[in-house]
User: Which sequence fits this backbone?
């Protein structure tokens, strides 16, 4: 059972977009921005509030890649694997991060909930390929070495 | 408040006068690329430095009262173009503009001292090509050889200031459109020959007319800013760099088809675009340019922003409107088309960012002017994002009908490190590859189609000889397979089967019959998939199979990848001349594939080798290399 504050926050978010079926996606986006994931209990709650079935809410939430039912790490690292980054060798950057953090294609988040590593199709900074994004900050011209330095830095920052 | 045409002109005069008050403007590029290289820090430093300089007034917004011509403005602009050389900074004094590249925090004080307060140019921070240093951005070949319509203001003014947009002539086109009347506006756009810049190339004027003719009176204007092609960032740059222009284009469309609500659907990965658009909408609402009774007429218009949630398929029209409605973003069967039943089943004008951004200038300068640029069938310019193995990566705009040679060699400066040109991938996952023999062909919507590619939204990824074309085809197929929405079987199953085959081939387990199967599956998907994205998904494979068939055959028959990209096909070899027989590689090899006698050259058993590269990484004598 989630704490009452979660539901209060959700009410506040629903308020922003109105109690109508069309509000589903922006509401889920704001909930996820708040908690870094989409708690299943809240999805059920939102469905009832905006007047759609629970099934419908789940079908939409599972369709879009950005929604996650699992809690993500404090730092969400998105390694760009767009065309420009791919031809400028983004894969070694991803592999270096996986190795350093003990993650893989299947396991995205470290046990200490510090780091989540994902790939993304394009960050729109192709001129500086290969790039990666940590939370909302884009880092240019990555190499495996620079990625590991950044991890060390983030660990120091805590 | 701007409630009437007169007030609009008064606001424009005031904004222009205020801009005259600047002695100098420091324009810091705040495109996604430059922010990544640290331009926000540069902006802060300049703001602080100017503030701390006695006798100089710092101005952030032009409408802040009288300035005596001595004030210094510190501004954030959209993309200035040379993304790889960021952070970019422009210093403008009257007509004189200096472009600085790779500006570091420690350079700011010197720039302020010598170029802002003084009149000197700092040579080491200029753009250099060979022995020539370029001070004015308009002389840099990368910029000089472009024609900028959509990007005319991008990088030249503060993307967060409505006053700067007004001073640059903003909303003159909307005013003129209202004076022209609805039918005239549609006729003008139609006569201009503007075609949809999102990839489809459908005539924009015709689309608008079809919506205007519908019986249903509730209509919508929707902007597709879901720029999902990997390797494309043109629309993002327009939303960041000149958001007002996009909005003005949408308002003209809204006026022409009598729509009262507009929606901009922006990709989730573009937080900066969302922020700039939100800022622009707020400013326009505050000043009365969005809302009811715009400019004293009966035209009401409101704008809404929808953020994507990470689904490439939402770039398809009916999937996009489904997503705005709060549904799964899946395409539906057509007809009815979007112009008849689009958003919430109402007639909808759906164009992409670049298309709308072309509209204001067409209204202002006229259809004839627009037709004087580009080719007969594809008038106007096209933006491209130039990336990959190229010297000058960045955002460009050129007339339709320009050749690849002009784009890659004149503007792009040729390949990086003098590498040899192999191909350019155009049109992203729905596109194909153009090669050496297409270098001098004029590019427009119709010509590119003949070469099994599409102009698409405008992503251009340049590839050199060390790119493996089979791997590129696999890369795109893995993208489309992952992004397939799963609604129709040809796309859902077909892309999966094609990907499996391509993966086999790059792993050295392909068979020659695989190539026939690939072609058969490609044709099946092309003819049978439900939506445009599905139909075009096999294009990267078809195009590479046609042009680079010998590379596929090499992978299958010779188990060889000439670009040395495919890991499984790499052959690690020890050069006996360099090998000292130290045995380090043999000790490091996890599968005991290296053998030999100490102090004599060692050998690698290719059959046992798992291509991990541990031997090569650890060799002290550089004796191990990869053979193609």
Assistant:
């Amino acid at each position: 059972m989630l704490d009452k504050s979660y539901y209060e926050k959700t009410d506040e978010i629903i308020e922003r977009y109105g109690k109508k079926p069309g509000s589903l996606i922006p509401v889920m986006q704001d909930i996820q921005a708040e908690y870094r994931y989409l708690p299943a209990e809240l999805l059920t709650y939102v469905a009832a509030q905006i007047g759609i079935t629970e099934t419908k809410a789940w079908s939409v939430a599972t369709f879009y890649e950005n929604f996650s039912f699992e809690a993500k790490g404090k730092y969400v690292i998105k390694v760009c694997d767009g065309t420009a980054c791919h031809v400028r060798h983004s894969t070694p950057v991803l592999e270096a991060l996986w190795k350093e953090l003990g993650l893989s294609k299947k396991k995205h988040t470290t046990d200490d909930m510090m780091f989540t590593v994902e790939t993304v199709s394009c960050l729109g900074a192709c001129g500086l390929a290969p790039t990666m994004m940590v939370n909302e900050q884009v880092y240019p011209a990555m190499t495996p070495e620079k990625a590991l330095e950044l991890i060390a830095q983030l660990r120091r920052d805590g | 408040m701007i409630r009437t045409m007169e007030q609009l002109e008064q606001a424009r005069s005031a904004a222009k006068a205020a801009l005259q008050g600047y002695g100098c403007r420091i324009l810091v590029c705040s495109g996604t690329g430059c922010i990544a290289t640290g331009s926000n820090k540069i902006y802060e430093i300049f703001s602080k430095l100017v503030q701390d300089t006695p006798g100089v007034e710092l101005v952030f917004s032009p409408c802040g009262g009288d300035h005596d011509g001595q004030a210094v403005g510190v501004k954030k602009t959209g993309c200035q173009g040379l993304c790889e050389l960021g952070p970019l900074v422009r210093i403008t004094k009257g007509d004189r503009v200096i472009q600085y590249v790779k500006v570091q925090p420690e350079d700011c004080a010197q720039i302020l001292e010598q170029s802002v307060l003084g009149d000197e140019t700092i040579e080491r921070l200029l753009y250099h090509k060979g022995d020539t240093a370029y001070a004015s951005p308009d002389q840099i070949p990368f910029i000089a050889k472009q024609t900028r319509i959509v990007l005319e203001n991008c990088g030249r003014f503060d993307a967060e200031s409505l006053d700067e947009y007004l001073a640059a002539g903003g909303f003159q086109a909307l005013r003129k459109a209202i004076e022209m009347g609805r039918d005239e506006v549609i006729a003008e756009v139609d006569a201009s020959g503007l075609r949809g810049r999102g990839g489809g190339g459908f005539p924009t004027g015709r689309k608008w007319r079809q919506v205007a003719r519908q019986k249903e009176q509730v209509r919508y204007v929707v902007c597709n800013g879901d720029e999902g092609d990997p390797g494309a960032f043109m629309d993002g740059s327009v939303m960041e760099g000149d958001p007002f222009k996009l909005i003005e284009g949408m308002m003209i469309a809204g006026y022409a088809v009598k729509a009262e609500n507009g929606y901009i659907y922006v990709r989730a990965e573009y937080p900066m675009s969302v922020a700039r658009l939100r800022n622009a909408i707020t400013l326009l609402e505050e000043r009365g340019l969005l809302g009811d009774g715009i400019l004293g007429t009966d035209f009401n218009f409101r704008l809404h922003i929808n953020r994507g949630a990470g689904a490439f398929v939402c770039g398809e029209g009916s999937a996009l409107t489904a997503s705005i409605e709060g549904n799964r973003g899946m395409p539906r069967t057509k007809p009815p088309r979007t112009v008849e039943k689009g958003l919430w089943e109402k007639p909808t004008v759906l164009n992409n960012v670049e298309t709308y951004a072309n509209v204001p200038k067409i209204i202002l300068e006229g259809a004839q002017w627009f037709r004087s640029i580009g080719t007969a069938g594809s008038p106007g310019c096209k933006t491209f994002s130039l990336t990959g193995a190229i010297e000058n990566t960045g955002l460009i705009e050129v007339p339709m009908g320009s050749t690849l040679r002009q784009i890659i060699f004149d503007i792009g400066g040729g390949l990086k490190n003098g590498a040899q040109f192999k191909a350019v991938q155009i049109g992203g996952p729905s596109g194909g590859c153009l090669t050496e023999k297409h270098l001098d062909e004029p590019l427009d919507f119709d010509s590119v189609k003949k070469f099994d590619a599409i102009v698409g939204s405008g992503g251009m990824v340049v590839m050199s000889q060390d790119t493996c074309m089979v791997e590129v085809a696999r890369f795109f197929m893995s993208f489309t397979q992952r992004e397939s929405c799963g609604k129709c079987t040809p796309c859902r199953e077909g892309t999966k089967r094609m990907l499996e085959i391509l993966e086999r081939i790059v792993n050295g387990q392909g068979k020659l019959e695989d190539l026939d199967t690939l072609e058969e599956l490609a044709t099946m998907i092309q003819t049978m998939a439900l939506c445009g994205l599905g139909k075009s998904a096999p294009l990267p494979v078809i195009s590479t199979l046609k042009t680079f068939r010998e590379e596929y055959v090499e992978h299958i028959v010779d188990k060889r990848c000439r670009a040395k990209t495919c890991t499984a096909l790499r052959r690690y070899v020890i050069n006996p001349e360099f090998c000292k027989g130290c045995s380090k590689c043999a000790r490091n090899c996890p599968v005991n594939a290296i053998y030999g006698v100490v102090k004599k050259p060692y050998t690698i058993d290719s059959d046992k080798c798992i291509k991990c590269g541990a031997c090569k990484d650890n060799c002290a004598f550089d004796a191990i290399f990869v053979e193609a």
